[in-house]
Amino acid sequence: MQFTRRNLLRTTAAATAALATPHLWLPGSSEAWGATMKKGEPIKVGLLFSLTGALAVPEEDSTLVLQYAFDEINKAGGINGVPVQPVIVDAKSDFAVYSEKTKELILREKVTALFGCYTSASRKAILPTVMQRDHLLYYPTCYEGAECTQNTICTGPLANQHSQDLIPFMVEKFGKKVFFVGSNYVWPKESNKNAKVWLEKAGGELVGEEYIPLGSSEFGPVLGKIRDAKPSFIFSTVVGASDIAFHKQFKQEGFKVDSMPIASLTTGEIETRAMGADFGAGHFLSAPYFQSLDNPTNQKFVEGFLKSKYGKNGTTHYNMEETYLSAYVFKAGLEKAAAAMGIENVTPRAIRDHSGGIRIEDAVSPEGLIWIDENNFNTWLKPKIGQCQGDGTFKIVKAAEKHVAPDPYSIYPDAGVCTKDGLKAADGKLRKSVI
Amino acid sequence: MDVSSFLNALILGVSIASIWLIAALGLTIIYGAAGVINMAHGELIMLGAYSSYMLQFYLGVPYLLCIPASFVIVALVGLALERGLIRYLYHRPLDTLLATYGVSLVLMQGVRLIFGSDPKYLAVPEIFSSNVSLGFASISTFRLVILAVTALLVFALWLLFYKTRFGVQVRAVMQNKEMAASFGINAGRVYMLTFALGAGLAGVAGSLFGVLAIVLPTMGASYVVQAFLMVVVGGGSLAGSVAASGVTGELQSVFASFTNDTFARFIIFVLIVVFLRFRPQGLFAQAGARR
């Protein structure tokens, strides 16, 4: 096309018109949703995880377990008789791709909801798009909180839920002196802020706090400092490959797990398998789910999943189970919204608004009953403490008696309270979509 | 800052230096001799780790034998790579860079297709998961193994380069390929063998790193940057890489012990940039014609 005056004017005019009347070329989400439902087509959901790159280890498992969950739902008759069809994309461990694929899933695939992300960084990369389209993201893992959006539902524990039991338990059992080690990014730092609150309440003492660059595998200097500080136990928020290197070098440097165990928020079954059982044995993990949980639902989940075509990695872990639950939270939310307003009127936002208070009962949830908070749409759950055994599985040594409430602003009480419609400050001002 | 923890930091620094050096050895040979900027170096390290895993898991080879076996396997991969691809690109440095980057992606995805993306595990003899205590200082046995292997390899390379006929040929080709060729040295063969040697050294590094850290398809990426830094700072010669790794390893250890890891990284990278501003040819620059 040549840039003559006439066609330049024409394109500019067209562009202006399109900008002024977006509904001409961007169907509203309700329109798109109603259209797919009427034709009796399957309910499309987007699975936005990394299948390649550095984040593939945890996120590939998330994709697999969600496919398993939707297969299970479809076999049992789907949602309101309509099958669910997962649309799987690869975010390639690249934040730009996360954001691009989010747009693709919402605009082109017209999915009803997104399930995705593992790191906080990727979540923060896609949330602006999700909020702009008033869409819905199921974020199925633990995170630091301090967000109050009207478009997310989280099925993992928040920073305030994780460490509440773990710190007093460790202080009582091993002693007052604690050394914090974490990966150098937002989640470990925020988690440690929470842990400090519990530590103070338990009468413990912080003797050191170190952060390791993400992906680093050199723990020599940190272990040297730990040797000098002589803590009673180590509290770890080191993630990924670094976490495995940390546990290995802990033992290689001659530290003894009996006298100075690592209490972690991240070292689950997948990590203990990868580090070799004798490096993981004796350390502690706080999580809402362990593969070894002894209840019929979990036995069914573990056996069914490992036997299915998705169980090739040979284990289930807390992150997978939280992801599995998100599929059922979606199912319940959609059913509730459809019953209230008619299926043809349901929008992603409406599913979210009807999800408050949804309970996933013992018969479905491998970790036991959970429910979605009516204000901040995170999950009420029971954190449990497990001790790693010689074979890489965990023995439950303590389970919370009551469900712990999710509180995204527990260490920032001045910011306000997260309500259904936004973050409510002390002076009554309401801020929407806070990230 | 008391003396004993300073001594401890220095001892640990030697160990960190040996880790940086063994990661960089193969690249030093390949870059120094053939002038190839091998972006697939990290993936050759990864292949070394997977070779050891494969030998151990499927054939039950004891770990200490896996180390030389990984050398052979990855050297063969390097040989195939040089014959099949790199040798057509010696006069086009930018194309080599892109081609080896492509190779790195192919290797990474290939390993992922075969072994899956979940981390693997290398078993070592019980004695390697303990430490040696010398009163004031303490160091893990496995770090001593890495140090010993590195020292052995550096010594062997020195012998090879300075005491054998092959070494004389390699150095002649490094200095001036055309002139060396006119004296009857088969430069193509020298390139082929040095590339295979460099790849094999990466394989050894991989089988050691698999024990120290983790075996993953993406593990190479974290080592390739520091390997390049050592080679560039060192100037591409063996002595240069040894000196560069020694200094950065000690700096890393001392700064990380007395401040923190993140700051130590920061200060090392700043120092390297400043150093390269004033001495872009590196510590021990090589005489002779560079391509």
Automatic annotation (TrEMBL), chain A:
Q: Which CDD domains match?
A: PBP1_AmiC (cd06357)
For molecular function, the Gene Ontology terms on record are: amide binding
Name of a matching Pfam family: Peripla_BP_5
Q: Which domain of life is it from?
A: Bacteria
Record-linked InterPro entries = AmiC_PBP1, Peripla_BP_I, TAT_signal, TAT_signal_bac_arc
Q: Which NCBIfam families match?
A: TAT_signal_seq (TIGR01409)
**Full protein name:** Twin-arginine translocation signal domain-containing protein
> Which species does this protein come from?
Hansschlegelia quercus
What taxonomic lineage is listed for the species of origin?
Bacteria, Pseudomonadati, Pseudomonadota, Alphaproteobacteria, Hyphomicrobiales
Automatic annotation (TrEMBL), chain B:
Which Gene Ontology terms cover its molecular function?
A: transmembrane transporter activity
Instruction: Please list every transmembrane segment annotated in the UniProt record, as residue ranges.
Output: 7-37, 57-81, 93-115, 135-161, 190-217, 223-247, 254-276
Q: Name one GO biological process term.
A: amino acid transport
The GO cellular component terms are: plasma membrane
Intracellular or extracellular location(s): Cell membrane
**Keyword annotations of the record:** Amino-acid transport, Cell membrane, Membrane, Transmembrane, Transmembrane helix, Transport
How does the protein's chain sit in the membrane according to the entry? Multi-pass membrane protein
Principal subcellular localization: membrane
Q: Which family does it belong to?
A: Belongs to the binding-protein-dependent transport system permease family. LivHM subfamily.
For this entry, the protein name equals: Urea ABC transporter permease subunit UrtB
Native source species = Hansschlegelia quercus
The top of its lineage is:
Bacteria, Pseudomonadati, Pseudomonadota, Alphaproteobacteria, Hyphomicrobiales
